[in-house]
Amino acid sequence: MVLDICLIFVHLYVQFIDTVKRYGAERKWCDERYVPAKIEEHLQISVASSACMHLAGITFVLMGDVTTREAIEWASSYPEMIRAACIVARVCNDIMSHEVPYQNSLSTYTYTYNP
Q1: Closest alpha carbon to 105 in 89, 84, 83
Q2: 47-101 tens-digit pLDDT
Q3: CA separation (Å) from 33 to 21, 48, 49, 103, 107?
């Protein structure tokens, strides 16, 4: 039981650190006025910084005894289903906030396909 609680906290800590690193990468892009050449490059950073991909793993962790270790590991491996949902959520968020003066996937897409 104590080992499982320690593993849960380690899991949450690692996900938090990953999100913070992605925030730092986005901030660096903003400071340097960098526009990614491809939408895929932008989504590689921005999807993870939205923490959407971590929500599935965290949800399984917070379910407690109902969930299994295999379910947590599956969600933490970021399968295609979770990644696709997070991409849709991130692009929708960027469309809604396109007037904010920072680099988002909508401006990268425009830059990529409409030079």
Answers
A1: 89
A2: 877 778 778 877 877 787 787 778 877 887 888 988 898 888 888 877 776 665 5
A3: 18, 20, 18, 8, 12
Minimal CA–CA distance to 36: which of 106, 88, 96? 106
Architecture of domain 2-113: Orthogonal Bundle (1.10)
Going from the C-alpha of 82 to that of each of 22, 48, 52, the distances in angstroms are 18, 11, 9
Task: Name the residue type at position 69.
Answer: R
Q: Distance between CA atoms of 46 and 49, rounded to whole angstroms?
A: 5
* Average pLDDT of every residue of the chain: 77
